[in-house]
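## Example pair
The file below holds two records. Each record gives the amino-acid sequence first, followed by its structure token line.
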Amino acid sequence: MDLAMGFFQDPVLRTDVVLYLPAFGHLQYLVLLGLLLLAYFSALKHNRLRFVSSSSSKDDSCSNKNSNLAGLTLPPGPMPWPIVGNLLQTSPIPHERMLAMNKRYGPLVFLKLGRVPAVVTDDPAIVKAILKNQDAVFASRPASIASQHFTYGGNDIAFAPYGAHWRAMRRICTLELLAPRRLELFKQGREEEIALMARAVWTTSIRKSSDTSHADTTKAINRTDSITENNIVELRHLFGSLASNNLARMLLGKRFFGPGVTGPRDGSEHRSLIYDAFALVNAFNLADYLPFLRWLDVQGYEKKIKDIMNRTDRLYDAVIEEHRRKRTSAEKDGDSTTNKFVDVLLAQKGLSHTVIKAILVDMAAAGTDTTSITSEWTMAELVRHPAVLSKVRDEIERVVGGRHRAVRESDLKHLTYLRAVVKEVLRLHPVGAFLIPHVTVQDTELAGYFIPKNTRALINTYSLGRNPAVWDNPLEFRPERFLGDEESTTRSDREVEAAASSSLFDPEYRMVPFGAGRRGCPGAALGTCMIMYGVSTLVHGFEWATPEGREIDVSPAYNSVILDKPLKLVPTPRLAEHVYH
């Protein structure tokens, strides 16, 4: 089989729902109704100031010893119900309800999610205080039931609580795994994956539904619904394969994840495990907020995550042991090369098998969603806005020098307008409606309010990108807002100040696609590279149209911010044939 066709063999139905707040179904409502009836006798309104004193008295470290905190109150917010707190008020679509709450109560809102205190914001100044000015105070993570199983008890990086383990793992990640010198070693692999993707799309674009020379391959492809008849490409699978194949090269030194000789089906099965597990990590589990319900496992989430992680264990155990044996054999032969991530981890002294496994799972989960979801949204917005697409293509051709060669990774730093397009996509369509929650490690003050220890800080990235106090015409797709050109006369001063930044990081914290500070994503540079590389290759290499001229449906999935329906487009080659080979 053509190696390029591995891009289209993905039977996984993705669940890219990134939720950190509840989205109730009928079962949850029934459970909560029962709890409310049982608690009816105690249905008295809570005094918010009394919560401050009671939470402070439970732990000496939470006591208000700092005179600067004396007299401060909690941020405003809706009155909580007994037991369930504000859980019902955050349904059915949390990020939209939170946007409305910030409009009503102010830039910082306090909530009680069951037994969990939380604050939510969509204000850049407060986001900056959380992620930069006080990032040490807000540096920890909540421990959910699913994440504890997924990370083998918090032994990963992304979900690990703030402490010595997290600092050690972060150091390994930034200095060894994702350091610029290490990423440079995998540049050839990234270029090969991009070339294989372009070749796969080209092969699809020239195939006719009646072409018998491709009968066997077409049958296999159509069985997965990744490509349908009439030369249609499903971009979600395409970008998902690009990201996961590139990641497998970095982790294991081969295109598809798994021990021994692997192929597209192995890669698909691995993605299925990771997506299913990550969906449960990000889903709302009632027992996380009302711990006394855990033994009931009302939604069945704990049973599901245990089953998935049992299968994941067997796969990762086999992969790690295979590389351990190869490493031992290579060392006997005097070869200590450690280019692959798994080998780098095995070379670290003091890392247990469990920790290595947790980090590999972590990177597999984090290394796919951001790039594939954002790339899909970018292509959707470009096709919906032909003038923007034309400007992107003109810029690419100026940098590349026409149509006689493909885009190279070294070209990306010169694609200023494309970078602005990607930033505009991330502003309007963040990968998740909320960043992974931060947790305070001590009492603190934020925006003039008292924030107790162990409070969750929820940054509503969906609302942040639509805040009219920050953005002019926030619902308009206009990449020029990120350029310091003549169009700056139509933009606010705050927009102009941040426009000169060539990276996806916004120094004003008006958008935080990769987080920031101590808990910022260490793979931001790699993610940015893959988004721009994949999109620029497809825009330069092909004309794109919708099937039968239909409009693109940009409706988000229920209670999510990803496209509800996978993006399907028809490509037409626009370069010389040799470029695709």
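Second record, same layout:
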Amino acid sequence: MSKSEQYQADIEKALTQFIQEASSYRATANVESVPSANIATFVQTHIAPVNGPTNRLNVTIPEGKFDWRRNALELAFRRKLLDVIVRLPESDKERYHQVFDCLDTILAISEADYVDTVVPLTLIEELLDIHTISGCEHLFSYVEKRKNQLTVNMVPGRGKGLILLRMCNEMLRRLSKEKNTVFCGRILMFLANSFPLGERSGVNLRGDFNTEVVRFDSDEEVDADTTMTDDQKEFYKLFWSIRKYFSNPPTIFQGDNFKELQKGADAILHKFQDIAKREEAISGAGNSKEAFSVSQKRERIPDIDDESMDTAEQMLKEINRDYQFPRLLSSRKLLELEIEDARFRRNVMVQFLILFQYLSGFTKEEKEATQSLLSARGATAKQSLVQPTFTLEDDQMAWVEEMKTTMISLLKAIKPHGKMYTEIVLTILRHERNWIIWKASGCPVFEKPPISAQVLQDLWKSKRPRLVRSAPPFRFIYGNAEMTNMYGRPRETLSTLMQSRPPAPAAVQVIDRAIAALDDSLDPPRERFNLANGALFQSTRLLFRTHAYLIPKVYVAKKEIYKALRESEKTSENEDKPEEATVKVVSQEITEDQVQAEIKVLQSTRQIILDEQGKA
């Protein structure tokens, strides 16, 4: 047996054993995928000894020749994948588990540089070609999970970038835009996240339009239909006759096509306004017969307050609930039913807004603004973006702006979440405007080149003298004249302030000043009582620092004075009391007797302090 045959036999045997062990591990651990540590162990145990420096088979590769083991290893994995696909049906989940195990292994091998880095994507591309759409969804889920590993060090213009782009574009060509809308969106989102924003492969550089012809009933067929009224026939012809301008807007500028667009757009707008008014009247009609008949046609989606929604995703999910994304059905018998659907009208109005934004770029002022913007961005005179030379007149632009404003107001009125939906659409249109300017300027790169170290050194040297130079003194130390006058004076320290403050008065002095003030005061009893009581409190606070033991004597004297006051009040009440029983009313007012009692307390306190000082 040659070394090549022995090599392939060893690899296939090891790979078969690993697939069996991986299946047993998933069944035992109840997991979906094998840990990367197990795959790394397999690579180090079975692949590295025959492909790495160990070279267990003693394979001799002449200098300058290609290592045939790389192709042999790729071939072994391709055979194993085909064996799994032939052996297991597409409906069996074990089939995808084993395929993913093989892909994880070849991905780890490519990271170890035992095969080319494009081999994993090449095998995935081949697997997608031999699976149905349902199987491709499972395989693409694996691609989404392994995005970081598959796209590492990917260059968009060659190698893995070309294979990934070709694989995704081929899948998009196979999918149906009506039945596989979600899958198409997943692929487009994957491409948008995998390639740089400025990648030219995803840009329509020439601004070409999809001019696919929209099929609808001819005028002869419509005129021959006896089940339609004249108004319905006229509206059907107008509605579908202007659809060609949405797919190929430059034709609007040819002949009288702009007038035809105006006529059709006005008719559609009036029709949508009538429907909106009727729905508004029905929504406020309660349980009327008209509201009941409409509710029998289709289930109305309950409106939800925009303020109560946490995310726009929840709002969009509510809008597109049970929505199958069909193409516009052009049968004349369906148009009346279609325009009754709020989502159909919403789609049509969004298409009008896109068309109006395209037309808004052909005014004289907008062309000049665009040209100046392109010149500021360094765009060359020869651009790849094809633009018609037509210029809108003032009356035409006024019609476009009026229609745009009316469409936006109608779009906001459509439930559910009309305002939020309209804001999202307008935001996308603003971003699209910036995207068009970027394409018109030749798709310049977004990333700015890094500044060289020499340039940074030169800038530092030129600015350093100015930075190290001392700044000239400002005429106001504290910023302005007022602040300088306020804070520019010499500051006094805390010790200076403490020494300069007046000494605390003695308790006798406080009492003397209070008694003198009470003798001369003509204030009401309440204020005089508060003055006397406050003087007593202040004097006791002063006594606390020098003669704290006198404070109980002061309050004992106060207690005796008030006791005598109560006894005298009790005696006077008994003398004035009538024979029949009366109810005593306790007054909260301060009497003159209480004021005099407080004065006596102050005098008694003064005498206590003087007696103590005399003893000392």
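Notes on the second record: Residues 3-199 form one domain. The mean pLDDT is 81.
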